[in-house]
Amino acid sequence: MLSDTIFVGSTNPVKVNAAQNALSDTLEHDFDAQGIEVPSGVADQPMTEEETRLGAINRIKAMLAQHQGGLSDAWYVAIEGGVDVFEDGPATFAFVAIYHEGHWSVSRSASLPLPVSVFQALQRGEELGRVMDRLFDTVNVKQKGGAIGLLTLNHATRQSVYEVALTLAMAKFHFPDLYTD
Predict the structure, then answer these.
(1) Where are the beta strands (DSSP E) in the chain?
(2) DSSP character at residue 14
(3) Residues 5-14: pLDDT tens digits?
């Protein structure tokens, strides 16, 4: 029997809704997603792939610690957005982590190229959401469509990209015999 609860390592509605939609859809089961404010153990604006991945994993571990190793049958999801510089320039992306009954799946989203001026602001210590709010005269865009929505004219959003990444990460739970942890 499937648990009715997904614990999400953030209270950001974009992340909570993405987890609820992706798992409800892929598992064909209605879930209640509950956001939990937990530390990522990394900078508010992760600046490398490694730091971003670690932030997602740390959020799951923090929730498991709060639940003394995890509640039976519950799903745990964490999403950590970050930036890095790649061969073709700076980009933003997210790592997603899913934990269920002792099994993990960690995956990465697609990348959104960032303007160099935006990346330079991040290097000075600003957070992407605040930089985008200033650049596009928006308010709290990180709890809405995000930089992704702004720069793609809302053809993709922060939530839609997170949902795809979580859907892909669910492959390990759909076919556990094909994957080893």
Answers:
(1) 5-8, 32-35, 75-86, 89-100, 103-108, 112-113
(2) H
(3) 999 999 999 9
